[in-house]
User: Which sequence fits this backbone?
């Protein structure tokens, strides 16, 4: 009954074009072209890159494509508004630009606009320590620390495009300070392992009203992935320490099937497996193997891929939500954004671990489905009137009880 109610409340919204769908599809095509050098992947990469440029906001930011809750009562102030996690659009554009020898002027202009956006929104937490707010045009506090991880990836990959020496030095200071910030946020779970909390734990008393004790393992995998990308472009000892600690934490909690929970909150693990996030485990473990030649990371990448292929595949796309307890499908809709994350992650496996034909064929089929839909479709994370009403009822019941 509980799951039926939640399915009704969370009925997806149609016709959503998300920046995440675009940049994840660009990462996918970059991976595949880098592996097989088939011209169609490069053509598709150009098509997606230009779509990202066309949808970039005038101020240089990238809009998620819908409103969403990112804290207790917090959501975007504006219908279209850049948020810091969407800076992965800049990472993808920078990698694509390098792939085409920086000859795409449209992409280069977009890169510089995004760099401007970052420059006006970085904050100094303490002397020499920098971060970026999650949604800086709506809430100017750090709040969710993964925003800084994604900004690190964007800055490290795009700093090469800054010609002015003084400006480049400023962004290098940002990077050094952000690496230091993220290392300071590691919560040790053992001598050689640690995690990043989802919310910033060191804010003011007012800021702490908007947070809880949530630990988000799937976002942590995405963060780890982008810290590794950043380190390849702008190495840093604090970052290397963070990478080792977070990797050790993730492999310490993964089970023999390649599964680990999406989140922990109040000591409880979630049973729902949001496949777009789960797939990020495959991506980060595959990239870790490529960089460090760690057999442990190869092994867990293979196990997580097997889990995904066995329980989430739906003969044409990947079911967006399954339940780990009984491996049943909780939500069987086709969500372009969710599948874009999946094909990017499994293309990392294909590129760095094993040229698996099943991965090749399924990822091609899914990208074609996303492309044919115009990168647009259903989305279940949007704020809808139904969700607002349900939240109000829950709060009312809590007050009465």
Assistant:
């Amino acid at each position: 009954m509980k799951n039926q109610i939640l399915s009704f409340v969370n009925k997806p919204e149609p016709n959503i074009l998300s920046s995440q769908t675009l940049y994840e599809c660009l990462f996918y095509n970059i991976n595949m072209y880098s592996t097989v050098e088939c011209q169609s992947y490069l053509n598709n990469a150009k098509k997606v890159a230009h779509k990202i440029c066309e949808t970039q906001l005038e101020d240089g930011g990238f809009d998620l494509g819908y409103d969403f809750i990112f804290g207790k009562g917090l959501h975007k102030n504006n219908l279209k508004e850049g948020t810091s996690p969407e800076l992965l659009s800049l990472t993808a554009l920078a990698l694509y630009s390098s792939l085409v020898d920086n000859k795409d002027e449209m992409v280069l202009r977009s890169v510089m606009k995004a760099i401007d956006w970052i420059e006006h929104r970085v904050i100094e937490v303490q002397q020499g320590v920098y971060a970026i707010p999650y949604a800086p045009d709506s809430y100017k506090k750090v709040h969710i620390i993964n925003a800084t991880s994604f900004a690190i990836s964007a800055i490290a990959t795009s700093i090469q495009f800054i010609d002015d020496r003084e400006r480049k030095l400023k962004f290098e200071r940002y990077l050094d300070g952000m690496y230091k910030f993220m290392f300071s946020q590691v919560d040790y779970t053992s001598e050689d392992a640690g995690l990043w909390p989802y919310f910033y734990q060191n804010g003011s008393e007012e800021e702490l009203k908007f947070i809880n004790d949530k630990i988000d393992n799937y976002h942590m995998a995405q963060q780890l992935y982008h810290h590794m990308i950043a380190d390849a472009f702008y190495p840093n000892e604090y970052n290397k320490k963070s990478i080792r600690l977070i990797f050790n934490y993730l492999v310490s909690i993964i089970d023999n099937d390649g599964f680990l929970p999406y989140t922990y909150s109040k000591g409880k693990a979630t049973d729902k497996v949001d496949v777009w996030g789960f797939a990020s485990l495959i991506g980060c473990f595959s990239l870790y193997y490529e960089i460090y030649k760690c057999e442990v990371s190869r092994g867990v990448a293979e196990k997580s891929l097997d889990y995904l292929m066995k329980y989430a595949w739906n003969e044409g796309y990947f079911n967006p939500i399954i339940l780990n307890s009984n491996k049943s499908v909780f939500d069987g809709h086709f969500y372009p954004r969710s599948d874009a994350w999946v094909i990017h992650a499994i293309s990392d496996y294909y590129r760095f671990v094993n040229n698996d034909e099943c991965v090749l064929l399924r990822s091609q089929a899914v990208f074609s489905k996303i492309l044919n839909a115009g990168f647009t479709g259903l989305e279940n994370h949007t704020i809808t009137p139904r969700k607002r009403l349900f939240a109000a009822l829950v709060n009312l019941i809590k007050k009465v009880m």
